[in-house]
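Something for you to look into today, if you have time. Could you write out one complete protein record for me, on any chain you like? The space below this message is yours for that.
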Amino acid sequence: MDRYDRQKLLLGEEKQKILQGKTAAVVGVGALGTVAAELLARAGVSLLLIDRDVVEESNLQRQLLFDEQDVGKSKAIAAKEKLSKINSSITIMEKPVQFDNQNIKMLDDVDIVLDCTDNLETRFLVNDHCRKQKIPWIYGAAIKTSGYVMPIVPEGPCLRCFLKEANLETCDTVGVLNTVTTIIAAEQATLALKILLGENVEPILSYHDVWNDEHKKLMITKKAGCPACNGVFEYLDKKDTAVLVRFCSAGKFQIRGNKPDLGSIKERWSKIGKVYGDGQMICFGSITLFEDGRALVRAKTKEEALSIYSRLVGN
């Protein structure tokens, strides 16, 4: 018996061979990404791992591939090291980079994309590219005790048919239970396996609240005015220079995002530390957020600045 014996008993020899010829991109190797990547690796699927961040001690509560020895390492590189020990027969490529519209073509050679990110800007970018290139992908998100999952295939409705940008809560400001991230990631991996094997999947948005034992499903339909479904890919054409500027002084960046609700963000930040503000701006740790959407972030690199902004502000 080989490593895939129990899977072959369920799926059959031919389907197992199909899986071993497929590659999945995991965008974001965090709470969702580590679990989904490990499940797919154990199933025999090759991987492309994309993440700009490094492992922090606070990640260990829910990012199941990492341990204390990984703190300070690149998430993409550390994940590859762990997964290579789990399954040395698959191909694993790591990209420890800021994922944006300048390098998104790295997704062109994969068979499916798993969205395991922490912000809507990146999700809409993935949505635009996958819609344009006709690549199936799996949307996933989790916060506090609940999460969402949805398969998005080329011929069906897309993410922008039912979701729009907003300043949302983030795990760094309101927390998250590790059981819900594991459940959402497992469902993402299951849907990925079904799509890779040519199985039919419905455009259903699944909702799970593990603490309150609530589970709901909503059938999503195409929105008549959806830009992406009508061939308008706004996020592929966005210019990064208008979003982030590096100051001449070392270690400071300006990020321009959507106009925030300073009151609600201040309330979230106050739960984890001291917040200063004057009505037109609020300051917490290494970030200062203004009411017009500008944020000043103290960081060593562009990637670190964007990571701080994403975790504390979200979009």
Remarks:
- The first helix runs from residue 5 to 11.
